[in-house]
């Protein structure tokens, strides 16, 4: 059976199983994310060999590109300016102070324990900074969990993918061979061009649909945002503007100036993003094997553990000083910084970049993400249930 055919079959079977057990997974420590990751590992070249993928397989680059584009597009759609104005204090602390501190602390651990150079260490810090509430679904979807905590985790994870991206691109450029590094002006033009396309194209499209000359029917309304996304993707590929910043900027622009387009896109957009996430997790798992994990030195395992249990908790502990969060809410926010889907794709981008430390960084990223998915997605139900118990102290304020 051809590789692509085998991949499609394995994904379809795994998806069907995930759908059939999804209700049970919401009530137990079972996790669809862990399922796809483990299936990828078992079916990959290192175990059964059903899906013999390598880092340079075309499907890896294509899936990583498309998945990250549409997930960032959907993430941006969740955080229009009105949403940020309504609830910015706690997420603002986590993003503006917690994110840079997490990158710095993770980088310090990588430089100390693994011996990476500072550009390489900062790169792995930026790759591992984004979080994903999908791996803590039982927590953010539980109405007994305080609303502001769920909002904090959702808004933070929706924005930190896009905020970490420029750092990933900059540190990736700094980590390459000096002769192969792009000129700073070229990199800046790509980043600024992506943002400009992501703002201008959706704004113009939304205004055209709202004019007297054009009007989308109810049947085609959900396709408006998809058409805008495809147009942005095509323009960026043709102009070499950064398509990921364009996707994130476009989502925010549509959410801000096109509430109807945002509302109609939301159901189908979430499903598209979820399918791409699961497919990327399976492919990511297929690149990992017992032999792959055995190549990681002891210091790398220590780094992965500390990146999960130390870097984010320490960063958010500083960020939330003086906030009104209860102790239980603080520790829950500290723990649920799962290394999410964006980190998976950023790791794949590093692997395909050809920088000298690409293989080392990917090994560390893969290990950290694997441990994070298992740890966070298997404890969300347990911790969510703790909020059904009374806590001795409750804050008097509703925000940070």
Keywords:
disordered C terminus, single chain, mainly alpha, transmembrane, 0% strand, 400 residues, Na+/H+ antiporter like fold
Explained architecture:
The chain is mostly helical. It has a single domain, classed as Na+/H+ antiporter like fold. The longest helix has 29 residues. The radius of gyration is 21 Å and the shape is globular. The termini are far apart. The C terminus is likely disordered. This is Sodium/hydrogen exchanger. One of its GO terms (cellular component) is plasma membrane.
Overall pLDDT level: 83
Structural class by helix and strand composition: mainly alpha
CATH class annotation: Mainly Alpha
Q: How many structural domains?
A: 1
Report on the biggest sheet. none
How many β-strands, per DSSP? 0
Rg, rounded, reads 21 Å
* Distance N to C terminus: 56 Å
In N-to-C order, the SSE pattern is: HHHHHHHHHHHHHHHHHHH
Percent of residues in helices: over 70%
In CATH, the architecture is Up-down Bundle
Query: What is the 3D shape?
Result: globular
Low-confidence stretches: 393-398
Instruction: Using the coordinates shown, work out and report the CATH topology.
Output: Na+/H+ antiporter like fold
Note the total helix count. 19
Strand content: under 5%
């Amino acid at each position: 059976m051809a590789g692509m055919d085998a991949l499609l079959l394995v994904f379809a079977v795994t998806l069907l199983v995930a759908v059939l057990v999804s209700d049970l997974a919401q009530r137990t420590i079972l996790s669809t994310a862990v399922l796809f990751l483990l299936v990828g590992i078992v079916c990959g070249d290192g175990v059964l060999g059903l899906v013999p993928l390598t880092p340079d397989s075309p499907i890896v680059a294509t899936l990583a590109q498309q998945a990250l584009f549409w997930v960032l597009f959907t993430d941006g759609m969740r955080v229009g300016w009105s949403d940020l104005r309504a609830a910015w204090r706690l997420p603002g602390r986590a993003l503006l102070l917690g994110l840079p501190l997490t990158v710095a602390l993770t980088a310090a651990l990588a430089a100390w324990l693994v011996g990476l150079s500072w550009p390489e260490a900062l790169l792995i810090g930026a790759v591992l900074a984004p979080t994903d509430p999908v791996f803590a679904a039982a927590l953010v979807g539980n109405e007994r969990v305080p609303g502001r905590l769920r909002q904090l985790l959702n808004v933070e994870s929706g924005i930190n993918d896009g905020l970490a991206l420029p750092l990933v691109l900059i540190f990736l450029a700094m980590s390459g061979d000096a002769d192969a590094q792009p000129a700073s002006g070229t990199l800046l033009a790509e980043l600024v061009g992506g943002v400009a396309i992501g703002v201008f194209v959706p704004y113009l499209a939304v205004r055209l649909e709202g004019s007297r000359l054009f009007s989308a029917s109810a049947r085609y309304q959900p396709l408006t945002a998809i058409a805008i996304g495809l147009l942005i993707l095509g323009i960026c590929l043709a102009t070499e503007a950064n398509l990921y910043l364009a996707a994130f900027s476009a989502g925010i622009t549509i959410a801000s100036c096109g509430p109807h387009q945002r509302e109609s896109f939301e159901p189908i957009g979430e499903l598209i993003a979820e399918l791409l996430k699961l497919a990327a997790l399976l492919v990511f798992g297929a690149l990992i094997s017992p032999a792959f994990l055995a190549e990681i030195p002891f210091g790398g395992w220590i780094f992965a553990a500390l990146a999960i249990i130390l870097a984010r908790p320490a960063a958010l502990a500083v960020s939330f000083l003086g906030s009104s969060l209860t102790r239980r809410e603080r520790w829950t926010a500290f723990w649920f910084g799962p290394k999410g889907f964006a980190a998976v794709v950023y790791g794949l981008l590093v692997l395909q970049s050809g920088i000298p430390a690409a293989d080392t960084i990917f090994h560390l990223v893969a290990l950290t993400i694997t441990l994070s998915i298992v740890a966070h997605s298997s404890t969300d139900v347990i911790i969510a249930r703790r909020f059904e118990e009374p806590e001795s102290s409750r804050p008097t304020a509703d925000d940070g």
